Amino acid sequence: MLIPHDTRIALDIVVDLVNTAPERAGSPEVDELGDVSSLYTFVKKYNISDVGELGEHDLNAVLEVRSRFEEVFAAPDARTAAELINRLVTSAGTTPQLTDHDGYDWHVHYFAPGASVAEHLAADCGMALAFMIVAGEQERLRRCEAPGCGRAFVDLSRNRSRRYCDSRTCGNRLHVAAYRARRREAAG
User: Fold this and answer.
1) Residue 97 is part of which domain span?
2) According to the 3-state scheme, what is the secondary structure of 7-32?
3) Residue 117 in 3-state DSSP?
4) What is the count of structural domains for the chain?
5) Which of 20, 69, 96, 152 counts the highest number of beta carbons within 10 A?
């Protein structure tokens, strides 16, 4: 599956944003976007451009967008996902435009000039999710199957076989547990 660079970045942002939610951050009490400072850190991490000064209103709007992205990952089918994405992208007031900034080749920004950070995320990331639906790849929007994890990820493996958010942590932990269980069983 060929995914353009800007779409891949937007998918990474969606996954990271969804995984900041308290139930995904490892503790039900911890929200990795719990304050405006955390939002600034998130914006800086992904070099999200043209967002200006951020405040509580921006934080609350981003948390709402995050909640809507979570619904897309939980959607039971492509039609439901498409309806959710359509509402999200429409609410962002998309204005597609070609740009080549910050050393990146030509790509499309879907957010309007002067858009808030929430509108920026809803438009660009919503369109990245839309491309997954259009490509018939909604099943690649997954949650980790490791018990107690549930982190979001996009399965970009060739044969759509990825089951864990990270093979070095969740995947390895389960494989080691299965190995030890087999050894105990063999030992009798």
Assistant:
1) 5-160
2) HHHHHHHHHHHHCCCCCCCCCCCCCC
3) helix
4) 1
5) 69
Say if 188 falls within a structural domain: no
Angle between helices 78-91 and 56-74 (to 10 degrees): 160
The CATH number of the domain holding residue 117 is 1.10.3300.10
Two tokens, residue 126: 């919503």
pTM above 0.90, yes or no: no
The answer to whether residue 187 is domain-embedded is: no
pLDDT, tens only, 29-56: 678 999 999 999 999 999 887 788 999 9
Q: What is the pLDDT of residues 136-159, one digit of tens each?
A: 999 999 999 888 888 999 999 888
Distance CA 10, CA 82 (A): 17
| Collapsed DSSP state (helix, strand, coil) of residue 97 | strand
Q: Look at residue 134 and tell me if it is in a domain.
A: yes
Collapsing DSSP to helix, strand or coil, 143 comes out as strand
**Cα 110 to Cα 98: distance, rounded to the nearest angstrom:** 9
